[in-house]
Amino acid sequence: MQTIYPSIKERGAATCPPITDNLRGEVTQWEIWDSYIEEFKKENKDDEKVS
């Protein structure tokens, strides 16, 4: 007796891709660092208020 395998059925769905915009900009390492330090100071200030 042979083993009967069920047939493989493929099922899929397609959707329309979302609308996209092209963005362009430049940032320097120093701008990233300054933003990081600013956020770090804000978080520490908030922690001091809670304590």
Give me some keywords for this one:
1 helix, elongated, 51 residues, 43% helix, single chain, mainly alpha
Short summary:
By secondary structure, the chain is an all-alpha fold. It is built from 1 helix and no strands. The protein has one helix spanning 29-50.
Structure description:
With 51 residues, the protein is mostly helical. It is built from one helix and no strands. It has one helix spanning 29-50. The longest helix has 22 residues, at 29-50. The radius of gyration is 27 Å and the shape is elongated. The mean pLDDT is 86.
- How much β-strand is present in the residues? under 5%
The level of helicity is: 40-55%
Main sheet: strands, sense, barrel: none
Shape: elongated
The parts where pLDDT drops under 50 for at least 5 residues are none
Question: Total strand count, please?
Answer: 0
Helix and strand topology:
Blueprint: H1 29-50
